[in-house]
Amino acid sequence: MNLVSSHNYPGKHILFPLSPMRAAPHPKGTTLSTDETTATALIRTLENGKEGFAKAAEKLDASDRSDVAAKFREFEQQRSVMSDELKAIAAAYGDDVAQRSTVPGALHRGWMAVKDALSSDDADAVIAAAETGEDHAVEQYREALEADISPEFRPVVARQLASVQAAHDYVRSLKSTS
Questions:
Q1: Could you tell me if 137 and 164 are in contact, meaning their C-beta atoms sit under 8 angstroms apart?
Q2: Cα 45 from Cα 39, distance rounded (Å)
Q3: CA angle 28, 33, 38 (to 5 degrees)
Q4: Torsions phi, psi for 59 (to 5 deg)
Q5: What pLDDT band is residue 113 in, cutting at 50, 70 and 90?
Q6: Which backbone phi and psi does 113 adopt, to 5 degrees?
Q7: How many CB atoms are located within 10 Å of the residue 160 CB?
Q8: Whole-prediction pTM value?
Q9: How far is CA 42 from CA 65, 80, 128, in A?
Q10: How much is the pLDDT for 98?
Q11: From CA 54, how far away is CA 38, in angstroms rounded?
Q12: What is the pLDDT of residues 10-24, one digit of tens each?
């Protein structure tokens, strides 16, 4: 039985068995498990979010919302840790995520609105764009939980969704205080 060590959050060290589920077609003619396909898609979402939060924090540093910039940097770090956890899981499947070049259109669109808004120096526009990116991330995680993923992978996705949802809720709350 293959085990993956998860070191996502300080003080927690989780081991869980991996069991491939239904296979999905892969462009190279091989097949990927639903867990592997889902992990790869979520890694892309997390990496986009990490980049989006970093750029948003840069913009907000120059505004009167430097407090929000600090929180966005925390979210950037959170996304990095979560991505690393999923990369470890994907590696246990023998997948090299770095070699994947295809980014589904929906994943790409999620933070594209953020990138467009980040050309602005308006803090409200940056926050609104971050909310758009977070809407997308929550949607991706919910879809992942609806997929036929293994019972071992499901709690990881559910835990990460809770973190993504909390970040989303924080960003959304900023609209009412700005």
A1: yes
A2: 10
A3: 95
A4: -65, -40
A5: low
A6: -60, -35
A7: 24
A8: 0.75
A9: 29, 12, 22
A10: 58
A11: 24
A12: 444 333 434 443 344
User: 3-class SS at 8?
Assistant: coil
Angle at 64 between CA 73 and CA 55, to 5 degrees: 35
The answer to whether 123 touches 60, Cβ cutoff 8 Å, is yes
Exposed/middle/buried for 114, CB within 10 Å: 0-12, 13-18, 19+? buried
Angle formed by the axes of helices 34-61 and 105-117, nearest 10°: 0
Token reading at 176: 């009412």
Quote the DSSP letter at residue 113.
Answer: H
Amino acid (1-letter code) at residue 12: K
The number of residues in the chain equals 178
**DSSP label of 99:** G
Of 2, 1, 4, 26, give the one whose Cα is nearest residue 156: 4
Q: Give bridge partners of residue 31 from the DSSP assignment.
A: 25
Report the chain's terminal Cα–Cα distance, integer Å: 52
Task: Give the position of tokens 């499947």.
Answer: 93
Non-local (6+) Cβ contacts of 10 within 8 A are none
Sequence-ordered list of residues with C-beta below 8 angstroms from that of 88, at least 6 positions apart, any chain: 4, 5, 6, 7
